[in-house]
Amino acid sequence: MYDWAHGQSDSIEGVTHSLCSLEYEDHRPLYDWYLDQLDVYHPRQIEFARLFITHTLLSKRALNQLVQDGLVDGWDDPRMPTVVGMRRRGVPARAIREFIDRVGVSKTNSVADIALLDHYIRQELNRTAPRVMGVLDPVKVVITNYPADQVEWLEAVNNPEDESAGTRQLPFGRHLLIERADFQETPHRKFYRLAPGREVRLRYGYFITCTDVVKDANGDIVELHCTYDPATKGGYAPDGRRVRGTIHWLSAPHALRAEVRMYDRLFAAEDPGAYDDFREALNPNSLEVIPDAKVEPSLAGAAPGAVVQFERKGYFCVDSKDSRPGALVFNLTINLRDSWAKIKRKGA
Description:
By secondary structure, the protein is of the alpha/beta class. Helices cover about 20% and strands about 30% of the residues. The N and C termini lie far apart (about 60 Å).
């Protein structure tokens, strides 16, 4: 009955080429025979291989089961390989088109590496996404030789790939926030970020040197004391000295709270379809929620769906469903390549 209806529907609708996946190749003789016997307009059926992507299932049946079982947050969950899910995650349409063009159409079943899609997403967002400062796991920094009541505004580039994007102003003062991972009390020999007695560059700011580490009763670091060199504004020293590490930061009094959702592959297995029950291949760590991240004040009015790059962290999209003024929510679109993370993995 499907073969009977398929050809007639295509004929009535004036379809010129009926594009089907390879399993319909065996059905084509029936498709053609019915149309010939009825002596009606005859479209041409062409079969091609389905799109298969590593760590992904595109079967509507499987995706529907994920939704029905409550394993994802609906069809628009940012982990879902649906158009609405990818849009909510901030994946640009152009990146998807570039990926499809690169994979091409084939008569042979093959599997595309999801890393290729990641490449096109990064490539497109690197070109278009504004840069901002976001600190996901903040630790306080006190610049002890900076005036307590002074605030200055530093100029920051919005997108080094697009001069027309212009610049913005970042507040700088005595109390800052940096990423906890950007400090090591006993630094690895290939760790070039902040450490006791070490000087690093604050992006668009000054050179700072860590002079003291403050810990709580449990021995956890709660505050870093640093000094700054006022002659290094903009990140360059007049005496020509160089530092190897550059880190991002926020002015603590001006930083905005945001919830950040760190998304990873929905499936840990490269081929989830090979499992008797594909749910066994789900990645238990596909979502991590960071409730108290901090972002720069320029994001106060960020529009739902807008994609930005948190410098040195990754590309993030303002969630179109849950984010609102005063309660910002960002979804990780895709991370950046992290050289230090690569070193740690190699060491492990």
